[in-house]
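== Folding task for one protein ==

=== Format: two labelled lines per protein ===

==== Paired sequence and structure tokens ====
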Amino acid sequence: MINLFLAVLFSAALCAPASAQVKRVKSEESLFLDLQKTGLGALNELDEKRKFLELVRLEKQKLQGKMLGDIYDNAYEYYRNGNYEDAKDLALKIISIDPNHQDAHMLLEASNQLRGSLRPGMSEKLMLEDRFKTALSYYTEGRIVEAHTKMTEVVKLSPNNIKARYWLSKMKEDLKEYYFQKGMQDYQARDLKGSLDDLYNALLIRPRDTLIITWITRVEDELRQQRANDLLKSALEFYAQGRLKDAHDGLRRALEVQPGDSKAGKLLAEVRTELENGFLAAGKKFYGSRRYTEAIGEWDKAKPYTANMAYINNLISRARQQMKLEGEEKKRRADEAARRAKTEEEARLKEEEDRKKAEAEAKKRGLSVEEVVKKPQGVTEENRMAAQQHYMEGIKYFQNSNYDKARDEWTIARQLDPGNADAAAGLKRIESILSGGQ
């Protein structure tokens, strides 16, 4: 679908007048918006949009290169047939789409020079001879690159020119040597990137030259090592500043450039350990403060740096289990408090009702309220306080998962104060746990 859309776009561009072509060449952003209109839908994520635009750009380049090549072939055919007007028009269309198309510029210049000539054949011969002489002049002056460029134009415009082809072949060897020597000079000046560019230019001329290939391999290795050393130096600076995350990322990039760098590998292992230990310590501190969510967050951050994922997963699992247990205990206490409040309210209302009945009965019988209501002997205040103390001791044992001791304490509390609902609920909870329930 993308190829079809781009094909329509370029076809429309080629049919338009040359003066309007520059305005109609679309940017990658415009292509993206146009493609949305074709039904591809909106892309919300920035990374997805960037990837899509890159895909559009690559497809555009491939399609543009093929189409411009076909158009140039047609323009050159017009030129060879002496139809310089149409050759010029097609060359202008190519340049409007790709201003850097050198062959189109060459064809446009030649077509303009020959257009309207009364004797085109003679004019072309003179033009080519002039370019040929200019190329030889450059060559004599040692201007190898310019000489090669000019002689290449002569050969492209006149492929059957044996003399030009001979000199082009000779210049190629000199041009290869020129780029090779320039690459060596850049290498001596420690401009490794410039050296590599020159050596690749030499390789394009002589693709199987083993000496050039050997030097390219050497310079690339040194360039990688230089890049790795720069990254390592930067990582060490971050490490000294305590910026462990930046140091870690820099060391990883250094190892991507130079995988066998032992210094970077050793330091990366140390930084990973420090990062892991830092997150583990922070998580344990949060855990000790019962801030389990924050603890889990810190332990999750340690995962990219650990070699023992099972240990971290166990810490997280324990924190989640503790969150669950404390949540259940909190809910139980809230329920128990609500139940106790309800029971106390019901007892108060009943006591109020009994008091009113006793007052009415006492008034009716002419007795005092105390004579009518004889309170049964209840739990002494001393026993009630002792029972509460045993209940609190049982709480401590329960929180430490010592259920037997907790049961003993709460049993004593019930014996001292049979009405202690907290002790009764605790005993019930222990029985549920020991029987395998929650």
